[in-house]
Amino acid sequence: MTPAWTTLPDLASRRLGGAVPWANDEFFAERENLIKPEPPVFQTYTFGHKGQVYDGWETRRRREPGVDQAIVRLGVAGVVRGVVIDTAFFKGNYPPEGSVEACALEGYPSAEELAAASWHPIVSRSKLAGDAENVFDVDSDRRWTHVRLTIYPDGGVARLRVHGDPIADPRLLIGAVDLAALENGGEILDASNVFYSKPTNLISPGFAAVMGDGWETARRRDDGNDWVLLRLAAEGVVRIAELDTSHFKGNAPGWASLSGCADRVDDPAAWFELMPKTRLQPDTRHRFVLDVDRAVQHVRLDVFPDGGMARLRLSGDPTDKGRAFLLRRWFNALPADHAMAVFDNKTIVDARPLDADQPLPHALSRLAR
């Protein structure tokens, strides 16, 4: 049975800005392949100067004791819920065992600084199967910025998927922010149709490179319409909505509307209009000013009748309640060593976790200014 966490974003994906800053060996195949968003592929009898070309990370055969390792910088820091070590197409050359550790560091550390970091196990040393997706649950409520894959003793891994919940650094969310953005903590809760591609693409970083990078529904043959329900990163007032139909030319929605609510998602009376049903054009970045001053926590995008959209951006200002939520969530999820690096005050760090009704410590609340 496929774990529910596999539907969460892959925090390591190159599509979200992930990178592989270091590996001790990549003789046969480059480390960067580990975080490619697309599934691995294989072509028989495709040889380069170092042998069969593999779509993955592959090290040379060890002739002495040791292990091979690769460090991944998560494109979006967050709480890891599960890891997939995919050995697709590695049959006689896969590692028999693997493990994963995580760390959290300030800023943008070098490979040398990463090597000296405090690493915490999130997947213990475990057996791996060849040519298979090796799935591991992760029991950790901390926010990590990097993971380190260790294989015992050598071999090839096609992909490393690190699924979890993004947690933004609230110090970077100053002024108007994209309240829907995945990297800020926005989340897709539900959608009417996910036939061609996932609605999570709507709130992913950057512009869509191709049509497949967006959300596209099947063709409707009834009188209804398709929709997506989002939970914003924090409660806020949305000022500008961007509905981007780039790359969707013969299959863009004809119209779209936006509605929102502060809470009580299941109560129809709690919802109100943010943007009326508005005509859209194919292959176009539409930007609309929203003249609504009410705070929202949830937003629903309706498209009429169906079609595809590349991105949805909802720029606005978090409310005081929303910013306090962002600060508290981030503060509670920091590993102890990272929290000490930020606050340099053991009394503050030891006060965690803060409950929702607890006032924020001054050192934390001042970050909201």
TrEMBL record:
Native species: Kutzneria chonburiensis
Domain Allantoicase, residue spans: 17-166, 185-318
Pathway named in the protein's UniProt entry: Nitrogen metabolism; (S)-allantoin degradation; (S)-ureidoglycolate from allantoate (aminidohydrolase route): step 1/1
EC class: hydrolase
Family: Belongs to the allantoicase family.
Catalyzed reaction equations: allantoate + H2O = (S)-ureidoglycolate + urea
Name assigned to this protein: Probable allantoicase
InterPro entries assigned: Allantoicase, Allantoicase_dom, Galactose-bd-like_sf
EC number(s) reported in the record: 3.5.3.4
GO molecular function, one term: allantoicase activity
Entry annotated with the keyword Lipoprotein: no
Protein's UniProt keywords contain NADP: no
